[in-house]
Write a structure and sequence with these properties.
Blueprint (H helix, E strand, L loop, with lengths): L13 H9 L15 H10 L5 E3 L5 E3 L4 H9 L5 E3 L5 E3 L16 E7 L5 E5 L8 E5 L4 E6 L2 H12 L7 E6 L12 H18 L3 E2 L7 E6 L2 E9 L5 E10 L2 H13 L3 E4 L3
Antiparallel strand pairs: 1-2, 3-4, 4-5, 5-6, 6-7, 7-8, 9-13, 9-14, 10-11, 11-12, 12-13
Helix pairs in contact: 1-4
Length: about 270
Amino acid sequence: MTFQMPQAGGKKTRFQRLKLFISQFDENWPKQPCAVASEEIERIKREAHIGREICAFAGKQLLKGWPEEFQWYAENLGECGCQFNFQIDFTVYPISKNTLNKNRGHLPHLFIGQLGIDSYYLAYDYSENLPTPHLVWASYSETLFRAADTLEKLLFASAFLNYAFYEYEWQYKCIFPASISNSSSIDENAYLERLSQKYYSILTECQFQQAWFSTNTDQFFLKDDICFILSRDFDTDDTYHTLLGRMGSNNERQIKHLIQIMQSNGIICEKIWR
């Protein structure tokens, strides 16, 4: 299937752009904004202690503000929520059904979604004194790592991973033969950085451009009819400790040329069977 890529733009066109992209794959995606009732917004603000000072890291007193982009979410998707459960398992909850913050308002987070069942929560992190809190993956006890620069990027990236990538006629995963050892002598971060730089070097040499909707855990690179995705891969212990490369295309000649380049750099390319 040939599809239109996610389009960048401003806040005023955010809902329409998201609708235009996702409706190519999901006919049930909302056609019009579905705002949540103001009473539900006030409820979640109370539960999350929005507008109050909290004791955050190192005893600092920080004010929990209401993120502007989450207000946009409340006005456009707050009643229906966003659920991606075709190829990934990620939900940003309808505000009326979000009870994640109840009895947890003292925590330096505003919890808004979840990755899978009994896994990480998507949250705004108030532990640093920033004009806009970071969007992070977190547990109820700690922030684990950054999720994305913005909720908009995360929604587009999630939609691409859930729908678009699997519409490519040709799909491959890329694997380095070496794996990370469980030995404590291995510097995991240094290893991941070396793998990342290897991929970046190849993609830069091939003149790929990083897509605007890339996130901290999923980076998208585009050229002609090929999309290459570099993702932090989650293991069975819910710790992402390796990199997964995937490439998709509807052009057999282009993707086979990229496969040859990857293989010449010691990277194994395996076809993803649908």
